[in-house]
# Entry
Amino acid sequence: MFFWITFGTVIVGRLMTEQRLSDARFPTLAALMVPPATASVAWFGLNGNRATTAGIGLAAVLAMMALVQLFIVPDYLRRPFTLSAWTFSFPMAAAANTMGHWAVAIPRPAARVLAWSILGAATTIIALLAVLTMRLVWRTRRAR
# Structure
């Protein structure tokens, strides 16, 4: 709640009232997925990996935030790679962790397939970030 009130207000307020985010700051929008994902993981920890109404609510908010991220993927891809792109790593890992908990809470094949798919996507994105970072370092050193 604290994160949503502070950072959410600042980010949304800036997006509504000021100029667009710079290329270096644009990836920080991925941080909006962090609160529902980490809250879901904590909620599952407190409730013994059981599906509850509060857990479903957190999952709905996480799904909405993930859809927002999917909607702006073309904007992410148009911008040059910067180190701030590592902002994606924690939200993706937290979302994959959340889906893993859901696969345990609701032991159905579809839940497991979704959890493994998201884990695979998160791993791929983090590996891609590592490769792009190495390429950026190599180009920066070569330009000197």
User: Anything to note?
Assistant: The two ends are 45 Å apart (CA to CA). The chain is about 75% helix and 0% strand.
